[in-house]
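Project standup — Tuesday

K.O.: blocked on the structure for the chain from last sprint. Re-posting the sequence here as requested.
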Amino acid sequence: MLDVQIGGAAQLRKVAAGIRATGDKGLGRQMSRALAASTKPIQRSIDAESEKVMPKRGGYRAVFAKSLRHKTSQRTSARNSSLTLITYADGTGERRDVQSLEGGALRHPVFGRSRTVRGRGRVPNPWTVTRIRSGFHKRGTDGAADEAERQLSTVLGDFASRLAKG
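H.V.: unblocked you, prediction finished:
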């Protein structure tokens, strides 16, 4: 699981405090949805970068693309505010090791091999590591950070002006 922190905490804190002061729960939910939407450029960029580095041969690229997920988390307090984008991928039995993939190591069973051990019968496939280009997540976040920041500023500015009017 990897996460990205997006700047603008002071403005986010100020707008969130204004929403709490007005007591408008609907406005808070609207802002949460709009902030989550501002992370979409980063999500698309991460997805595109993962498509470039995951091996097409053997079908892992398609499997990984289907399992890749993003979740946003927002926290606001009197002193701190954060908007976090969390990236993860679900596997068959457990979450995929996105940290290792980011580091350039794709661990997988050896294709077409199984072992038969005397007295135990067939045992699971041995596993191996294939090297892939590292840093797909970082390249994805770096490539879209400016666009996400612009969208975040627009959202926060819009909500600040709504609070000023109301």
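K.O.: great, moving the ticket to review. Strands lie at 2-6, 68-76, 81-89, 105-109, 115-117, 121-123, 127-131. The chain is about 50% helix and 25% strand.
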